[in-house]
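dude i think i finally got it to work??
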Amino acid sequence: MKEKIARTISRIASQELPFVFKIQQPFGGAGAFIVKSQQDLAELQSRLSALILPKLYSQINAINAHLKPATLIISDLAPDPVGDWGLTFFVTKTRDCVFLAAARQVIGTDSRAWIGSTISYTAQDNLKDKFTPIIRQIGAWLSCHGYYGPCGADILETAATAAAVPENSAADVQPVLHIVDLNVRSTGSLVLGLMRGYFSWRRGLHYASAFTISVEDMTRDVFIRRFEKPMREGRVVIVPWYEDRESGSSSCGRVVVGAETEERLVGEVEGIKEVGSEVRW
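look at this
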């Protein structure tokens, strides 16, 4: 194993900067490393040698080897991104693609990890036109592999696009889009697209955010009582909720918040987060 780890480290050291390094199954940014400098490279090599690679390689066996669970990915770093999007869509048995939503990814400033998504429902029609070509490309590839069902894609939009054009603009702008990740499953932002009618059409709440929150000494019932007014108004919705009944002190819930404007959405979300902390992967 030591020789295999040494070969891996040597290969990574030879990669031209900058680049992105990922293990096969990262989640929410965990397991993905942006390497821009020699210092970043040294830190990555240290973590790989001491922890990641020994654990990863030790788990390969005759039963799972054909799945290539220790595959490592090195990719180019998209230059000057101006948009970080999470697309959700559905691939049908007949190879059609049904656009569900395009949401902006919320990335933690300290951890560079995904912590949630926000959506503008009034922008969805224009965003559908913008992203339909790339969704069709992804859907065609998935169909060739026999897949149908929900899918998500993390897309970076680079500075080569007309970054100053508003989301709601009907201008004919051809963006440069980069597929960063495919999430061939139900994704964390899927709920935002499915709740467009609930928030925007029925209640005039044209902006929404979905995120996970961890709270101490607060059950689901206590949380509901704490935010009874906005929940009765349909502004706050609990999707799943987990309670650690053994300790009796911690809970974790996925919350969706809607508001009339972006500014009010920020305030509503901050009000929720005051009672707990974001879950950072």
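The longest helix spans residues 38-58.
im so relieved honestly
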